[in-house]
Amino acid sequence: MTASASRILSISLLSFVLAAAAHAGTIGGIVINRTTGKPEANVALDLLSPTQGMTELATATSDSGGHFTVTKDSIGMAPILIRATFHDVSFNTFAPPGRPNIEVEVYDISKDPKTIAVSSHIVIFQPQGDKLIGAEEYEVTNASQPAAAYFRSEGNFDFVIPENATFGQVSTTTSMGMSVAQASIEKGKGHFAIAYAFRPGPTNIRLSYELPYPNGSATIKLPATYAGAKVLVVVPPGVAVTGDGLTSAGQEQGMMVFTHDPLPAKGVLSVSLSGVGSAPAADGQGQGGGAQEGNSRTGGAEVISAPSRLDDYKWFIVAGLAALFAMGAILLSRKQVVAVESDDAEAEVPPGKLAKLGKTQTRATALARPPANVTAAVDQHVRVSMESLKDQIFRLELRKQAGTISEEDYASEKAKVDKLLRDLVQG
Fold it and tell me: At residue 129, what are phi and psi to the nearest 5 degrees?
């Protein structure tokens, strides 16, 4: 991105953030049950701050009409995560600054496994010395009618990591663009599960692990948990890949892409890798963490963080995999970081609080002299917005390569990305 484009985005986003000050202190809205289409009463709401380590800012309960209102000084100038607990299941809604009226969605619960379907399984490998970093993404769709969230407290999405792999972390990303880390349920022999409320629409499951890579080569068996999912294997240039049924699909964002026909349930794809690959140029910083959505309230829907070496692999992220790792705490970092990603790119802010404006300051003074950390947050907005766009384009192209999206839907999604870019530049 050019310096002039950065300045344009910075000015536009600064205006947006400063305009949010007019609404500082109050947030409200309505809780809607999307299964019934009606407002939902007596839903417990927790308002959390993603910029302050998911600190609880306030609590509320929807009234008989589903409405709620919260007034507090710390609300309005920074993004908020609203966690609604309905039928002992948590549903997260992101509230960016400057949007005082929010619709919080909840759903009735289904326990039927046929509620969801897995359409694609993307596997990314990156050599790092005598280790091989693996990252996987499953695209899951809930097309239930009437709309319901699929959830089982004992675990309702299973996955298997390769033999001898050391598990890192698993997270979920919804169509809203918000990524939350999930607590894994270990079942033994590389089998894991998560207990997550799959809302209607698409959800991406992202996980990471580490494998031995002695002498720059390894043969890895990739187990299939779900039948019918198109498989893509992605590696950096310079890494040789072989495997029965693998077909080269060219490059995307500087990464080599290979496709494979869907495997049967419990099928195995054997892939041989060799070479260290070449590293594209890197920029920016990655962060991670999040608030858990989908676990029962009694099970403790808590913020979780895990060690990772995210910065060591930032060039890999920039190569087109930013969101796969960016939602944090992928295996191997030693930093404790927290972030929540959103389609508005509002949630990721540098560590520390945005400074509160003194009570004696007038609004005119506040607007005339924005705090330095607000400007820093705007700069972060610019970077995260562009990284988010890059990730959307990359994953859209991978879906096209995998054949999991129709030409009509591809054109529609591409048009949305183009419009988002225009809106960012135009402010």
Answer: 65, -130
Please state, in angstroms and rounded to a whole number, the distance separating the CA atoms of residues 427 and 410: 26
Helix (H, G, I), strand (E, B) or coil at 299: coil
Residues 298 and 303: their CA atoms lie apart, in Å, by 14
pLDDT tens by residue, 113-129 = 999 999 999 999 999 99
**How far is residue 128 CA from its own chain's centroid?**
24
Q: What is the pLDDT of residues 77-94, one digit of tens each?
A: 778 889 999 999 999 898
One-letter amino acid of 164: N
DSSP-derived secondary structure letter, 298: T
Euclidean distance between CA atoms 348 and 325, whole angstroms:
14
CATH topology of domain 113-326: Immunoglobulin-like (2.60.40)
pLDDT cut 70: percent of the chain above it: 61
Residue range 128-138, pLDDT digits in tens: 999 999 999 99
* Separation of alpha carbons 340 and 159, rounded Å: 23
Residue at token pair 């920074």:
78
Report CA-CA distances (Å) from 340 to 98, 137, 231, 286, 288.
Answer: 17, 18, 28, 12, 7
Q: What confidence tier does 318 reach under pLDDT thresholds 50, 70, 90?
A: very low
Q: Is the dihedral of CA 326, 133, 193, 394 positive or negative?
A: positive
For residues 354 and 130, give the distance between their C-alpha atoms in angstroms, rounded to a whole number. Answer: 41
User: Is 389 a residue whose pLDDT tops 70?
Assistant: no
Q: How far is CA 25 from CA 56, 117, 377, in A?
A: 15, 42, 19
**H-helix or E-strand containing 30?**
strand 26-33
Pairing of strands 230-235, 255-260: antiparallel
Tally the residues of the chain: 427
pTM (2 d.p.): 0.65
Strands 149-150 and 109-110: parallel
pLDDT at 164: 94
Asked whether residue 184 carries a pLDDT value surpassing 90, the answer given is yes
Give, rounded to a whole angstrom, the gap between the first and last alpha carbons of the chain: 16
Q: Concatenated DSSP letters for 257-283?
A: EEEEPPPPTT-EEEEEEES---PPP--
